[in-house]
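Q: Structure tokens for this one, please.
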Amino acid sequence: MRRRGLSLLMLVTTACDAGFLSPADPDEPTELVYQLIPSGDPYSPAGILLRWTAPTSGRALTYDVYARSSTSEEFGLRATTTSTSFHDAGIPQLQYYVEALDADGESIGQSEAVEVDERNRLPAPRSLTSVTLNNAVQLQWDPNAYDAAPDLFDLYRVYSTAWSVAGGCDLSAWALEGTTVSDGFISRGLPNGETRCFAVSAISRDGHESLWSAVREDTPRYDARSIVLDASDIRRASSAFVFMSGTSGGFGAVVSDTTPGADVVLERRSDGALWFRAARPETRVMQYGVSPISDLTSIDRAPVAGYVDAARVMAGFGYVFRVQGGDGVRYAAVRVLHTTTDYTLFDFSFQSQVGNVELLRAP
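A: Here is the predicted structure, written as tokens:
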């Protein structure tokens, strides 16, 4: 079998009378790219996925994938495939190229080499903080990884593990909680009273994983005041809120946007902004003032006029709700603690006495 020699330089021919580059060889694979597969260890990816475009001539039947771990080594055959992609498990090699073979097993063309570029690794996320919730923990961190290279950034990976008094964070049991493009994440379905450890890494578009953030410990608790609402187009089952459940005196329930009696729905509009929208005609809302407030207690009295059917959600701002029930009007207050493109986190207070504009925190 004849095999062409590898050249890391693109061979081009200048058309003297036209002044442009010649077209690509129709027998050569082109557009070879790679994608690392993160493992949680920035220095040991789980593998690499190679993809390329088949030669335009249509003569290629199989492909040989070659790789080497350093520029001082010779390339060696890694695999043969009929596909235009290849998954190389384990720690990736430094450089790869692909050679196309025809029906007789003869080499007809090869791609340029692609090199795994560690310079694409982003910095570790900084300033990981948390908010304790009921059966959940809300995490937030600085967007420094995105800010360092917006064109390279892809997403964040969030990890957690168990914690014990005797041993602290269980380093052998780290597991992926999920991924997000936002600088915030909610870990849900956690047992109350059990501490967990959390950490975050940043992933580049080609799959390089950053070092982890500092570890954050948090313990979900019962009756948390911080309420999480999801945008209705993301998670309908937890996108609406009821300030008071009927006449039984129950306060504060996260419900579906289809639940009868829901007071407010978190709605994401076409520009990506989140809005509090009245879920029924008997509920109205208004933004409290024109600037953020320092605490929910800053809203001491509910205005008696100026309510509308929707208000844009902004972190730090206060909102007042006018809720009409069968026995009269009640008022509620909300202060938004944090908001992302997918959810918002807030404190609320509710005045259970009909017609009373004094807003006291619900028990």
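A few notes: The CA atoms of residues 243 and 320 lie 12 Å apart. Residues 1-22 have pLDDT under 50 and may be disordered.
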